[in-house]
Specification:
The chain is α/β, with parallel strands linked by helices and 263 residues long. The chain has helices at residues 17-26, 48-66, 76-89, 101-107, 119-122, 125-134, 146-156, 163-174, 196-202, 213-223, 249-253; strands at residues 7-11, 32-36, 70-73, 94-95, 112-117, 139-144, 184-187, 208-210, 236-240, 257-262. The protein has a 6-stranded parallel beta sheet, with helices on both faces. Strands 6-5-7-8 form a 4-stranded parallel beta sheet, with helices on both faces. The chain is globular. 48% of the residues are buried.
């Protein structure tokens, strides 16, 4: 018998699609449930206490309904704040998302790295720890932008923001003291790889943008190695808290998601 339990991807919005895409490339037969906490969006401006309480409770409800084989917290803010609590609360394997500081440090020639995330992510001690462990010889500059999250959400809905809006986001990073030496930027929010091409187009010079999507996908594939998958999985399902999401139908279909539900 095949195992039709899905992989459950979780984010506050559509950003987790940047993790779903490389996962589907590696595991094309995996059933997918993509959960977006639209009622709680955006996480990047919420308090740590709010996220730490909200995410495990919401994932508990999703696990009860969809019985996934694995949870993928495809949200840097939720992962850096609530990952340990989710793992403690639920008897399901959980993969988190962390800023790709380690691979950025491996490729930076100037030893100056930019970290672009939400305000909630860039202020986390976890980011300090990653920088200390994997980029100790680098100057790590950070900028938190809720505006870029909104731009990415709008882009997926067909509302392309202006170049000046993207340029303003990057100025918060490159205009910092030492910012002129940045040669690698870590997209430390899963929304941001969705608009990496827009960022690259307005960057002040050739910049390499790095995210953790492909590495997370490889981790998921490794942890599920040897498991059975349906020969013909059902179309992917998107679940939006508080309803909605129907304006994203065409965009979600490009990621193999053809059904929409609410929680």
């Amino acid at each position: 018998m095949t195992d039709d339990r899905p992989l459950l991807f979780f984010d506050s919005g559509v950003g987790g699609l940047s993790v779903l895409a490389p996962t589907r490339a590696l595991l094309p037969r995996a059933p997918i449930v993509y959960a977006a906490d639209a009622a709680g969006y955006p996480y990047g401006v919420r308090s740590e206490a709010d996220i730490a309480a909200r995410v495990p409770a919401l994932l508990g409800r999703l696990v009860e309904r969809y019985r996934p084989r694995m949870i993928v917290i495809a949200c840097n803010t939720a992962s850096t704040i609530a990952l340990a609590a989710v793992r403690s609360a639920l008897d399901v394997p959980v993969v988190g998302t962390v800023p790709a500081i380690k691979p950025a440090a491996l490729v930076s020639a100037t030893r100056t790295i930019g970290v672009l995330g939400t305000p909630a992510t860039v202020r986390q001690p976890y980011v300090d720890d990653l920088a200390a462990r994997f980029a100790a010889d680098c100057h790590v500059l950070r900028h938190g932008s809720s505006e870029l999250v909104a731009l990415a959400e709008a882009e997926l809905r067909g509302d392309a923001g202006s170049d000046s809006a993207y340029r303003a986001v990057l100025s918060g990073l490159f205009d910092r003291p030492g910012g002129d030496a940045i040669d690698v930027v870590v997209n430390a929010c899963t929304h941001f790889p969705l608009v990496a091409h827009r960022l690259a187009a307005v960057a002040p010079r050739a910049i390499r943008f790095i995210d953790g999507g492909e590495g997370i996908a490889r981790r998921i594939a490794h942890l599920t190695e040897g498991q059975d998958w349906p020969l013909s999985p059902a179309a992917g399902l998107a679940v939006f808290t508080g309803g909605g999401g129907h304006d994203l139908g065409d965009a979600l279909a490009a990621y193999g998601i053809e059904r929409i539900d609410s929680l």
